Amino acid sequence: MSRPLLEVRDLRVEFDTHGGVVQAVRGVSFEAHRGRTLALVGESGCGKSVTVQAVMGLIPRPPGRITAGSVRLDGTELVGASEAVLGRVRGKRIGMIFQDPMTSLNPTMTVGRQITETLRRHEGLSDTQARARAVELLGQVRIPEARTRADQYPFQLSGGMRQRVMIALAIACNPELLIADEPTTALDVTIQAQVLTLLKDLQRERQLSIVLITHDLGVVARMADDVAVLYAGQVVESGPAERLFEAPAHPYTLGLRAALPDPTEGGRRRLTPIEGAPPDLFSPPPGCAYAERCPAAMRACATRLPPLWELEESHRSRCWLHHALAEQPAEGPLKGLFRGRTLGA
Amino acid sequence: MILEVLNLKKHFKLGPGRLLHAVDDVSFAIREKEILGLVGESGCGKSTLGRTLVGLHEKTSGQVRFQGQPLPARYNDADFRRFSRHIQMIFQDPSSSLNPRMTVREILSEGPRLHGLWKKHEVPSRVGEWLSRVGLGSEAQSRYPHEFSGGQRQRIGIARALALEPRLVVCDEPISALDVSVQAQVVNLLEDLKSSLGLTLLFIAHDLSMVRTISDRMAVMYLGKLVELGPSDELFFRPRHPYTQSLIAANPEPNPRRERQRVVTPLPGEISTPVNPKPGCRFADRCPQVQGVCRSVDPVTREIAPGHQVACHLF
Lengths: 345, 315
What we know:
The complex is a heterodimer of chains A (about 350) and B (about 325).
Chain A: E1 6-17, E2 20-32, E3 37-41, H1 48-55, E4 64-73, E5 76-77, H2 83-89, E6 94-97, H3 101-104, H4 111-123, H5 127-140, H6 146-149, H7 159-171, E7 177-181, H8 189-206, E8 209-214, H9 217-223, E9 226-231, E10 234-240, H10 241-246, H11 251-258, H12 299-303, E11 309-312, E12 315-317
Parallel strand pairs in A: 3-8, 3-9, 6-7, 7-8
Antiparallel strand pairs in A: 1-2, 1-4, 4-5, 9-10, 10-12, 11-12
Helix pairs in contact in A: 4-5, 5-7, 7-8
Chain B: E1 3-15, E2 18-30, E3 35-39, H1 46-53, E4 61-66, E5 69-70, H2 77-83, E6 87-90, H3 104-114, H4 123-133, H5 150-162, E7 168-172, H6 180-197, E8 200-204, H7 208-214, E9 217-222, E10 225-231, H8 232-237, H9 242-250, H10 256-261, E11 301-305, E12 308-311
Parallel strand pairs in B: 3-8, 3-9, 6-7, 7-8
Antiparallel strand pairs in B: 1-2, 1-4, 4-5, 9-10, 10-12, 11-12
Helix pairs in contact in B: 3-4, 3-5, 5-6
């Protein structure tokens, strides 16, 4: 594959709180490619939203800070870059969509005005040009009667419409990368289908690279080419979507799948929850963060952080069971999973 | 049948000449010891229906019979004392439905004490039993709701509802606010308690796959109307009503190969308003198979296969 559009290497982010320092992101690496969708998947508190805030240079400082790592957009380093550089990247080269458009759109401005502001700022268009382009953009995100809608305020639009406006804003300056943080979580399933189809169409038309943050494995399956699974501030498994769903390698990914209903007819197996809860990120464990909940945890897991093993081309998993000398689970859900997938010595 | 709902309507007056038809002429029955799933998108009236069944809303018209006995249209204090013990509710948001100033012991014992089920000296041991049934330790008794995680709070909400030993429990989106791995914990807990206590559940949710897994039968609502009801697998894999078909087609499955092959033609438009709805089928404006009659005549509910009913002019 060619050089990735976005390359995140060993990113670390922490926040000061009254209770101490939270290590929200603890060494996350991933890459996003042109024309492809990367899904960052994980449950609440896994660090997926903080990761993309860091990419956008939106970590509030204080209390937050990036303590290590690198974020490169097409080769340009963004960590530590000046506000001037970041200002040119945000909105212009990277567009962003958030979960709740009601809180990210300005309630006191018509939606058309919000788009023209962006266009005048980044593209230097005149008022009339910007207005015409805004209406055109609203049409591109399939908002009916775009001209009328442009003069309305966010509260006059439905949730699905507002999310389309967010998308129009995000793509206004032809960004190369679109970051979508839980873009359909607040929407109903039929409206979600509309928005996901729209994102896919825009991606095809514009060769967009999309980084999609979601907790919904159904949405991942529909949208993603590549997936990175996050747990307790780290990527535990990453690779092509089909590999991750059909041959998951990390016990956490496997656990997530077993916790979901069986989608086949007559399939009524009992759900298998993941017992317990993720670790406290005020004092994360020195070893594998999942060890406490893992049915196959070994002694080493609690004390030593497993490396990300490369199992196949771009399929990686952070688990000691891939070690050639690890004793393999003789029973339970992980039995046989690691056959032929151990590495090193 | 433990509960029979006949032509139930719940309308809200919004102002002069503005009537919101939240639940409009809905009829169905719940069998003893079954789980009936109720699905639909926001604004379809599923939560209002649930709240009306437990007496939290006055019924506009229609009848609800519990174990053969008609429930009052509007509950007074005595009705609540009489019926709420038998029909309980579990709410979506465990943080807003638990009193933040009460300890877990107070929360769990309030109902049973009011109903005279528990004597004062039994409270600690009874609360302890219920906590262990829902997988919490007895040390939780003297703690407050904010000291627990979302999943744990939902367990407390479940224990509170079940401590009254109800026959029927209306669960209104009990897992929507929870993470996937925790959802499975709560679903399994509900299933276990259902079998050990012989409960009947009305399980309201918008997650179709989860509802199919847990329920024996499923019902689908759209803009106040019940559009389809049938055995879960049949309804999920062979939906008949065009709305159910679109809903299930829109539901993404965690299987990338299948999702990639699937041709998704999203349903156009959005749910219209339940305020002064137009005559005819509520789904007509978005329906891919709409006919002339749909816009003028309300479809009647027909049984198209044993136990499978659909309200659509196509049948």
